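yo, Flavin-containing monooxygenase iboF is done. seq:
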Amino acid sequence: MFSLRPTALVSLSVVLFSIQETLSEQQPFVSPGWSDQWWHKSELESYTFPWPIQKVAIIGAGPSGLAAYHELDKAGYDVYLFERDTVPGGNWHYTDETPVKEPIPNADVSIGDFVPSLPPEGVRLPYEEHYEGNVSDELLRAHRGPKPIWNSLQTNAPPPLQQFRDHPWPADQPWLLPHAVLGKYIRAFASFNGINSNDVENPHISYNTRVELVEKCFTSTENGPMRTGWTLTLKQVSRTGTNTSKAVWTKENFDAVVVATGRFNAPYIPNILGLKAWADRFPDRIVHSRQFRRPQLYTNQTVLVVGAAASGVEIATDIAPNARAVYLSIRPRRISNSNSAGNPLSSRWMGRLPHNVSVVPEIKRFLPPTSAIALSSVELTNGTILTGIESIIFATGFRYTFPFLPQFHNTSLTNHDLEHKPKPIVTDGTHLRNLFLDILSIEEPTLGFMCMNIEIQNFKYAEYIAVALSKIWGNKATIPPVTRLWELNERRVMEKGGYGKYFQFLGFRGEREMIRLFTGWLNDAAASHGGRQVR
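structure:
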């Protein structure tokens, strides 16, 4: 998702290297695990939805949410879009404002992004509350959730790989784009579809609106309550004056729900021995990478960056010209020429690090803090003691979390637990479980998910998922019955060696295999049930 600092020569070499590394057939291939051509089975074995699907809610207006809206709207569904931020764009909406400071140690993954805010029990909806002063400002910030990108961020893939098919870039675009340019492109696509934040005439879009809860909806019948979809509890927060705001809670029912909230919402900071004492003693000097905005904040400092995936390498490189020195702490297995599941810090990457960036081993522990952070010590796994550290940035990634779906969280399970009822989607936050093709809840097939895989081109991949959901819910493409879905899921888990951090990893080859699967399945369905072909 992210690229290196905006120096033309370095950036071009990084993109060329990135593409070469991505396309390299030397890189081990991790199968997506969905190799069975289940769509060739008889229609008698297909899943039947218990209610017709017409009204669909989409949670999130990033690229994948917009792609879902575009496709479902085109297919004739009544589509409603809910976005907690002020404008569309997802992670590509940059602001100088930073997210609310993350706790150390991590919050429980079920509330890793936010703690759902529900109206008082028993009140009539819509229900309002009013705020002023600092309370108002903090409410607005926490509600919209500023995104984890920084001022100098650029894309790490050429425009043709980061575009909506119906909205191509001009041919003369440079290979690397500043985040502001991509943000404008996404907003232009939203405007073209009448779903930008200023399209006030569209009653189906709601910005500044966070989905607090998604729960089963029941309708009273002669035979008792009958399940008919989903009820969403919504909270819209808006500014009413210079330092005042109000929150309005409502509820609305839908036949199906698309989760398009992305993967970069709940920060992960490893629970290293002694870290909490440092965080308590020096709270402003220890942050997650999502707080990083500008390198000037670290001028003449000695900075410890933890993590060797994309953000860690890029932030270390970005702050190096301003900093006195930078330590980049990595795990030994990250120094390799190939890695099937992530962004390796290969010898070629290391050769591009500035002279004042030193690569050091993993942190073993933080020794008891003293009166000043620079006088305190960090012990590495090889026994080295670092002192003089003035700031620490944890570029250690994010965890999957859906606070609005508490019924699908179970943090008590281990990575290798397979049997549990109800079947959770989120456990420890490193991966997702019990999703067919990683896009559809097996237990609740009216609950869809957009672009939850690792190492994919979101713009392109989102369009295939959107078409799949549209056809499945419109009975123009079939899926197996639930018993068969569970069989396929269990076989996939075994093929991938159990659950773990890279369970959702695809990469170039895995994404290509999944696109072949989507294309074969959906075009086979189009031949049987009608509808357009995908390519």
